[in-house]
Amino acid sequence: MKTILPSEAPSVAAQSLTKIYGRGNTEVVAMRDVSFQIQRGEVVALLGPSGAGKSTLLSAVGLINPPTSGRIAIGGRPVMNGPRPLVDLRAFRRKHLGFVFQKANLIPFLSALENVQVAMEINDAPPRQARKRALELLEYLGVADRSRNLPAALSGGQQQRVAVARALANAPSLILADEPTAALDSHRGRQVMELFRMVAHEQKAGVIVVTHDQRALDVFDRILEMEDGVLRPSASAS
Amino acid sequence: MNLALRDIRHKLSRFLLTAVGIGLLLMIVMGMAGIYQGLSEDALSFLERTKADLWVVQRGTRGPFAEISRLPWSLEDRVHAVTGVADARAFVSHTIQREYRGRPLRIVVQGLAWPRDNGRTLPLIAGRSIGQAHYEMLADRSLGLRLGDRIPLGKDLYTVVGMTTGMVGQSGDGIAFFTIPDAIAIQYDLPGEAVRLEREARRSRLTKQDLGNIQPLLLERAAGPASELPALGTQNVSAIMVNVAPGVDPGRVAKVFSGWSDVTVYSNDVQRDLLLKAIERNRKQLGLFRRLLVIISAIIMALILYTLTLDKVHDIAMLKLMGARNRVVVALILQQALLLGAMGYGLAYIMGLWVFPFFPRRVAITRENLAQLALVVLAISVLSSLLGIWKAMSVQPNEVVS
Lengths: 238, 402
Fold this sequence. Notes:
Chain A is of the alpha/beta class. Chain A has one domain (12-236): P-loop containing nucleotide triphosphate hydrolases (Rossmann fold), CATH 3.40.50. In chain A, 30% of the residues lie in helices and 26% in strands. Chain A contains six helices and twelve strands. Chain A has helices at 54-61, 89-96, 112-122, 127-140, 156-168, 186-203, and strands at residues 12-21, 28-38, 43-47, 69-74, 77-81, 84-85, 97-100, 174-178, 206-210, 222-227, 230-231, 235-236. In chain A, helix 6 links the parallel strand 8 (174-178) and strand 9. In chain A, helix 3 (112-122) packs parallel to helix 5 (156-168) and helix 4 crosses helix 5 (156-168). Chain A is globular. By secondary structure, chain B is α+β, with helices and mostly antiparallel strands. Chain B has a domain at 3-43 and 280-399. Chain B is 52% helix and 18% strand. In chain B, the strands form three sheets. In chain B, strands 4, 5, 6, 7, 8, 9 and 10 form a seven-stranded mixed beta sheet that branches. Chain B is elongated, with a radius of gyration of 31 Å. In chain B, 36% of the residues are buried. Classes of the chains: A alpha/beta, B alpha+beta. The A-B interface holds A 55, 58-59, 62, 64-65, 90-95, 97, 99, 101, 105, 107-110, 114, 117-119, 121-123, 127, 150, 166, 178 and B 1, 3, 6-7, 9-11, 314-315, 318-325, 328, 397-398, 400-401.
């Protein structure tokens, strides 16, 4: 059930994004004239074959790898104009974006709780407050009982839940997930997808999930498909 | 949240092992400084204990601490007679090596002007000072002798009646104190056969000369002990130590001795400088080793920290992706470098306390040396972290995606 407030700015709005790698004979157009909007609370699947430009799009929207041209606004605020950042990208990522990857990428020397807590402390949250919220998030995602464990002691599914908790730590307006269920079995994969849906709706965050998993597409509000760097017209998940 | 400490906790055994390695290196650096300090202190300890104002030595020499100096013992009386001199004592010092209980025993033999000086001002740790004119000795504990030991030196047996501590010569050999006549007797002792041959040579020389034939008494004397031949039996000492009377300018007294054509006079400070110059080459060598070890420590620390950073590249990329400021990443590496340096330093000190007493030469650790090394460790910790910091700064957040 979507809970989008019409008065709110979209979680992310991308306009005419193009990304070109290399120059001259070695030039490769990884993404061409891509435009889309994702509302707060909306969960969107991004599909496409390998090399379609999905990860390039995710990197551009995640302010990791700037586009060659085009504009990006997050939470209504313009952040990129072509390759030129309009904000301090690192600070903006810290406050407004959450990331989940195929591998959980948890910091191996921090416990599950600390992995979530550190994301908030990086964002200048007081340690005690950060710890309290980290525990709440782990409870919310059903892994509070493993909060003291190091990542190596957690199963793949538990690690991904902790990674989701970390992505949610600073209440971001946009969560980007790159094949978050690829390393999980179908049951756990579906659980994680449903988690994103729950998080998007309850936390009012836009969620883009790059996935190859066709079995869990019913979880998404909308599906975007990319091929050869071009975004196809969007389709409803159902 | 302190990321550096948490990372260390995660790889504690590896970190501790690394710290032990750094600690061993720093212990050697500390030891080098301590050996030099010990060398200086040992060399100067006797000089400082004597508190002599002036040293009268053989003309044209730089004194017993730099080269051989020989003076007649009777010079002590001449010196004593000079106005302004409160005390004059002969200084006899030489090194001998003998077998004792099946092991080589190197002893610095020093004479005490008994009975005025019976060794009571020495740092005695057991026994008593010298109580008679002959056949008693005080031994430094570094010689490995025990109270009551009877040591054959020359043709006599000397009993250890007192033990001192920290009394070693320039070469690090322990000092044994005797009365001056005993010290001279040990120095000039000759084997019986050599004495017999010398007497025979004397007699032979005399019989070939008219004087020997005219004065038969001379032939009789030549067959006796050397000390009974005034022309031959002058007893030599190394130097005369002089103390001037209170209120008297040592320079003025030195001026009197300067007028004597058979001696050279030095102030205590000049003798001190001469002593330090004698160990200058050792100091330079130790200093060079020390510098090399500091550089090696810095390189090893830099490589360790670089490797530790390489291990964390993915985590650093993740931190940057989450928006961590550069100072978070710099602090992670710098704090680990400082902790490694601090632990290495602490371990070096602890291991040094345990190991240094077994070194053949005394290792004197001073507060100044410890403070100096602490600053050096701080500097190499910061410098060696630069390579790791540079690597961390070059990590891009998109490396998480790759």
